[in-house]
Design a protein that fits this description.
By secondary structure, the protein is an alpha/beta fold. It has 2 domains: about 5-150 and about 330-345, 3-Layer(aba) Sandwich (Rossmann fold), CATH 3.40.50; about 165-330, Glycogen Phosphorylase B (Rossmann fold), CATH 3.40.50. About 35% of the residues lie in helices and about 20% in strands. Strand 11, helix 8 (about 265-270) and strand 12 (about 275-280) form a beta-alpha-beta unit.
Length: about 350
């Protein structure tokens, strides 16, 4: 995909500058794919032309081009429930002389507030990474488009070399702010594999001793997470995470709040790492079932590991097929192309 697909399409993108946010690399990958396919002017905190309190009309008057539409990206609204929703006060989007399209990030954080905000300012359509947004906020009177997460194949490259680890897991065990929206499966998984204290893994259980594991979990509790880091279970850096996927045969993917299909599924597949996932209706919206191995209950894990890790040829065939599927359908370039294709006809 390249710029020629939407030749001449001009977009004012309202977003924070995400290039310095290491934990939000997927948002930067999205913005890069957007700028590769259309002419974009980025405006928001961190960009050199940003000025707090400036209105949208003022921004457009000072712009180097007249945009076909305004697009509010992942970071336009605040996810942190302790902070104000608007990151760019004073914009007054209702006054926009051009259509506005929006993307909602972290659909479990301030979900109703975000939807209400976009309804109030009159956006033309909302794109969401949640497969069934209206189940949680009701009918909203705005066209909705489901856009799955994607992957940057230049960041998550396939490794065909011998893999050092059998199984990996990385993630927050249970979201402390939105715990009521997330099952306890990750905690149950840790307790299946490890003897633990304060939800910190201490000693691996005997039936899992033969597997070579990468386990990186955290709780959100400073004290417990300090102990976890001392025991080698702390968060991975971006580079270490990428390297971990490429050196591990299979990776455990468990539900996020509201059952969002996170970036990790796509990143595993692009890296040639077998996805082991808990069964979920949401998976059917994105992936053919044969591209991953699923389980109903944590108790099924020992037999599943025996099955998936004992046959190297079978595993390689399955992971190569999954990788091809993701590269053909779910790179960020393709996600952005599909989004712009949905928008273009309504603004020209």
């Amino acid at each position: 995909m390249n710029r020629s697909n939407f030749n001449g399409l001009r977009i004012l993108v309202l977003s924070r500058d995400m290039s310095a946010y290491r934990a939000a690399y997927y948002q930067q990958d999205f913005l890069s794919a957007l700028s590769n396919q259309a002419e974009c002017l980025f405006y928001g905190p961190g960009f050199p032309n940003y000025s707090l309190g400036k209105s949208l009309v003022e921004i457009l008057l000072e712009s180097s081009f007249e945009p076909d539409f305004v697009f509010t990206a992942h970071s336009f609204l605040e996810d942190d429930p302790r902070k104000s929703l608007e990151t760019m006060p004073g914009l007054n989007l209702k006054s926009s002389p051009v259509p506005i399209f929006s993307l909602i990030n972290k659909e479990y954080s301030k979900l109703s507030e975000k939807v209400q905000f976009f309804s109030d300012v009159g956006v033309q359509a909302v794109f969401t990474h949640h497969h069934n947004l209206e189940d949680f906020v009701g009918k909203i009177g705005i066209p909705l488009f489901f856009v799955p997460f994607g992957v940057n194949p230049f960041r998550f490259k396939f490794s065909g070399s011998k893999r050092s680890y059998d199984l990996g897991f990385a993630g927050l065990l249970k979201n402390p702010t939105f715990g009521d929206l997330q099952a306890k499966t990750r905690i149950e998984l840790m307790r299946e594999i490890y003897f633990s204290v304060l939800n910190t893994p201490i000693l691996r259980k005997a039936q899992y001793a033969k597997w070579r594991l990468i386990w990186k979990s955290w709780t959100g509790s400073p004290g417990a997470d300090l102990i976890g880091r001392l025991l080698g279970h702390g968060k991975l850096s971006e580079k270490s995470y990428v390297d971990a996927l490429r050196s591990t045969k299979a990776w455990l993917n468990l539900p996020s709040p509201l059952d969002i299909i996170s970036t990790r599924y796509f990143e595993c597949m692009a890296s040639g790492t077998l996805v082991l996932a808990q069964k979920s209706p949401a998976l059917e919206y994105v992936f053919p079932s044969h591209l991953m191995e699923t389980f109903e209950h944590i108790s099924e894990l020992p037999l599943l590991l025996e099955k998936t890790l004992s046959d190297e040829a079978w595993r390689m065939e399955r992971t190569l097929e999954a990788r091809n599927f993701v590269l053909e359908n779910h790179t960020w370039d393709i996600t952005v192309h599909n989004m712009l294709d949905a928008i273009e006809g309504s603004v020209r």
